[in-house]
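Good day; I would like, with your permission, to put a structural problem before you. I would ask you to consider whether the tokens describe a fold that such a sequence might reasonably adopt. The full record is reproduced below for your convenience:
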Amino acid sequence: MEKEFFDITRIRSDSRFQKYRELGLINEMVLRNLQIKYEYLELRKTHNQIDSIFILSEKYHRAYDSINTILFRKRNTKPVADT
């Protein structure tokens, strides 16, 4: 079963999302990591794994190892909203 990724751009433009962000209910780091994972899948359609990670590390100003950890380290699922 393949993980389903959401259209981050559509979610961010939603008025409810904007309200939740204003209230401080959105965990920006989790959202950023979700965006990185989505972009990685898109990059892999045209680039190899190393190049894809390097492109993301440059775009998000993170070390190569940080992007690699975001993509491949097994973690407990964290909610998008802080509670």
User: Anything to note?
Assistant: The mean pLDDT is 87. Residues 40 and 52 are 6 Å apart (CA to CA). The radius of gyration is 14 Å. The first helix runs from residue 8 to 13.
